[in-house]
Amino acid sequence: MILVADSGSSKTEWRLAGPGGEVVTEFTQGLNPYFADSFKIASIIQSGLIRIASEANKIEEIYFYGAGCGNESNRRIVEEGIKKIFSRSRVEVQSDMLAAARALCGKEAGIACILGTGSNSCAYDGQKIIATQISLGYILGDEGSGAVIGKKFITALCYGQLGSAVEEKFNEEFGLDSNAILDRVYRKEFPNRFLASFMPFILTNMNDKMKEIIFSSFQEFLDIHVSRQIKMGCGNTVHFTGSVAFEFRDMLEIALEQSGFRKGKILKSPMQGLMEYHLS
């Protein structure tokens, strides 16, 4: 049996493939080694994976991909946490960027991008990542991400740039004034998740100003990230995964075309591609 996990900023999807082709899917909260040690990770797994953990003795291989797993020390934290529950399994921990590359490109060369709560990109030669961009987080980087688009949206809202209709709908749905927003951003945990949480509202209440914010954010991502990766010789096809890329794919496709890049796959989640990669 093979267990694959894809861990984002807010949740982790676990998918277990049985010998007869049966699949079990369960979810836990996001497991980022920057915010959780091995004991916390083990506790979350034990309490959240009821069905999958019951098969622990039968699981031969575990492939975990997650945010914050870009260096060896962080990968070790996650591996130790997983091993506390799945002691007999072989565990491989890799970054969410490699998850995107394997899910989107398989064993072909290409450019793989993540546009979700955060953002990143890499050049992938079909086996390994040969170049990636430094991840600066939502304050300094994360261009095109839900956190950054949400930040620009909230800024425009607080400055009165989105119009009275949007302001009224926002107040009806969230009941947040500027003081409450500032408190959430500057005093509470996970302001990036808070800012990205407005993406569904933006999607259903789009106006010209919000389109401008999203389109310019995508163009900025392409200019900073993709233009650099294209130079690495992995082709001109650009693939995307993540909820922001998927839900706003019409604008993303226009931005790609205007920038002269060839559109590849746009997936909401890398999980299905990862399962195909590991089971092929």
Note down, in words, how this protein is organized.
Helix content is about 50%, strand content about 20%. With about 280 residues, the protein is an alpha/beta fold. It has two domains: about 1-90, Nucleotidyltransferase, domain 5; about 105-270, Nucleotidyltransferase, domain 5. The strands form two sheets. A five-stranded mixed sheet has the order 3-2-1-4-5, sandwiched between helices. Helix 3 (about 70-85) links the parallel strand 4 (about 60-65) and strand 5 (about 90-95). Helix 1 packs across helix 3 and helix 11 (about 210-230) packs across helix 13. The longest helix has 23 residues, at about 210-230. The chain starts with a strand and ends with a helix.
SSE blueprint:
Elements: E1 2-7, E2 11-17, E3 23-29, H1 38-48, H2 50-53, E4 61-66, H3 72-83, E5 90-95, H4 96-105, E6 110-115, E7 119-124, E8 129-132, H5 137-140, H6 146-158, H7 164-174, H8 178-186, H9 191-196, H10 199-204, H11 208-230, E9 237-241, H12 243-247, H13 249-259, E10 262-267, H14 271-279
Parallel strand pairs: 1-4, 4-5, 6-9, 9-10
Antiparallel strand pairs: 1-2, 2-3, 6-7, 7-8
Rough outline: globular
Could you tell me the mean pLDDT? 92
Instruction: Supply the CATH superfamily name of the largest domain.
Output: ATPase, nucleotide binding domain
The fold-level CATH name of the largest domain is Nucleotidyltransferase, domain 5
Q: So how many helices?
A: 14
Largest sheet geometry: 5 strands, mixed
Which stretches are poorly predicted, pLDDT < 50 over at least 5 residues?
none
What percent of residues are in strands? Answer: 15-25%
